[in-house]
Design goal:
Distance between the termini: 122 Å
Number of helices: 2
Number of strands: 8
Strand content: 15-25%
Structural class: alpha+beta
Helix content: 40-55%
Largest sheet: 3 strands, antiparallel
Shape: elongated
Order of helices and strands: HHEEEEEEEE
Length: 193
């Protein structure tokens, strides 16, 4: 009785089964990797969305506070012109300017930038600007154009989470710029004299 001859078919059968098991393990590992990648992408997207939603609330509040303080300073300047300019009021004005500087520094640190395109005679851009008033003009070529900016707009870039998509030539294909507030502008409206 030759033991080698008896064991050879069993060894070959075990080798075939082992090869099948190794192939199956490889396929399962690839499926597991694919599922893990999809899960990670979904989790990352959810975290980015949650972060963005939470952060937008805080940044918008900061922008609103800056706007309220700016309005208060404008009211102060109107009062000062009417002779109500006391040393205490001047000190308060200085402190309010310092608060605005701090708020703007906080916004810059969060990669929030001002939109200040509203120079006189510029085209009105409804993607970045919001008209908050009109000024009449007798010049038809100025109709619909920007008269002046009242309040800057702000956009946020999210640099730490989302990288802009770049083409092979280095140009931005898609920019992650989120408008937090539109620039408030006064536009011209033509009126015949």
């Amino acid at each position: 009785l030759d033991m080698g001859a008896l064991l050879t078919p069993i060894k070959e059968m075990i080798d075939v089964q082992n090869t099948k098991l190794l192939t199956l393990c490889q396929q399962l590992q690839e499926q597991n990797d694919s599922i893990t990648d999809k899960y990670d992408a979904i989790t990352r997207q959810m975290q980015e969305d949650r972060y963005r939603k939470d952060k937008v609330k805080i940044l918008s509040r900061t922008i609103r506070m800056r706007g309220m303080i700016t309005d208060m300073l404008a009211d102060y300047d109107n009062d000062a012109m009417s002779g109500n300019d006391t040393p205490a009021a001047q000190h308060l004005k200085l402190q309010l300017h310092k608060i605005i500087d701090c708020l703007e520094a906080d916004l810059r640190q969060e990669m929030v930038y001002k939109l200040e395109n509203g120079v006189e005679g510029a085209d009105f851009n409804d993607e970045l600007m919001e008209a908050c008033g009109v000024e009449l003009t007798d010049k038809p070529e100025l109709s619909g154009k920007v008269c002046r900016s009242v309040e800057p707009g702000y956009y946020w870039t999210l640099p730490y989470i989302l990288k802009p998509r770049i083409s092979d030539t280095g140009e931005e294909i898609y920019s992650y710029k989120f408008i937090l507030s539109y620039e408030q502008v006064i536009t011209y409206k033509y009126q015949k004299q």
